[in-house]
Amino acid sequence: GQSLEQPSEVTAVEGAIVQINCTYQTSGFYGLSWYQQHDGGAPTFLSYNALDGLEETGRFSSFLSRSDSYGYLLLQELQMKDSASYFCAVRGGTGFQKLVFGTGTRLLVSP
Amino acid sequence: DVKVTQSSRYLVKRTGEKVFLECVQDMDHENMFWYRQDPGLGLRLIYFSYDVKMKEKGDIPEGYSVSREKKERFSLILESASTNQTSMYLCASSFPRKSSTDTQYFGPGTRLTVL
Prior knowledge:
The complex is a heterodimer of chains A (about 110) and B (about 120).
Chain A: E1 3-5, E2 9-13, E3 18-25, E4 29-37, E5 44-49, E6 53-57, E7 60-65, E8 70-75, E9 84-92, E10 95-101, E11 105-110
Parallel strand pairs in A: 2-11
Antiparallel strand pairs in A: 1-3, 3-8, 4-5, 4-9, 6-7, 7-8, 9-10, 9-11
Chain B: E1 4-6, E2 10-13, E3 19-25, E4 31-38, E5 42-51, E6 54-57, E7 64-70, E8 73-78, E9 87-94, E10 105-106, E11 110-114
Parallel strand pairs in B: 2-11
Antiparallel strand pairs in B: 1-3, 3-8, 4-5, 4-9, 5-6, 7-8, 9-10, 9-11
């Protein structure tokens, strides 16, 4: 089967940098995605890594190490609006079209 | 603008009722998904469909069925609702790409309460 582990909660202050880790186990692997979900809202796509290394999109970056089955989401210059839940999700296993999601990390940004 | 809509934001049903949750996407996507989201459990895949009239079970299909008669519409059916099906239900769609990201676009969700 497939499983993902990520911390349940992370707290930080405005302007800081925070890293949300994700480790995964899957029988096959196509890529690791990150989604953001504000309270009461729908998950929205943030980033995707298929190959090892760092992908940068503005204040957000995502990293993947396939040999370690590990990735992280890095959020820089934190803003209050970044308070949300962040989910890692892996494409793999029996089909490339499905995603298996982690249980989510709740990020609380304080002033 | 990409859009996935769900028929209701909130729904209250009684145990044993048949419940239909509708999802419509306007992006001509092949793939459509139904998830349920519960606190501490993340998003769990119930069923997905990769083409009209095609469906595959996800991780938690028990107690649910689905229907996809048209490309843009994917329905989730609870044949006989039970209290343990009280949850947030999220629909998503994507265009299948093997070699790059296949971003899933989510609807706003339906919060179903079964009494």
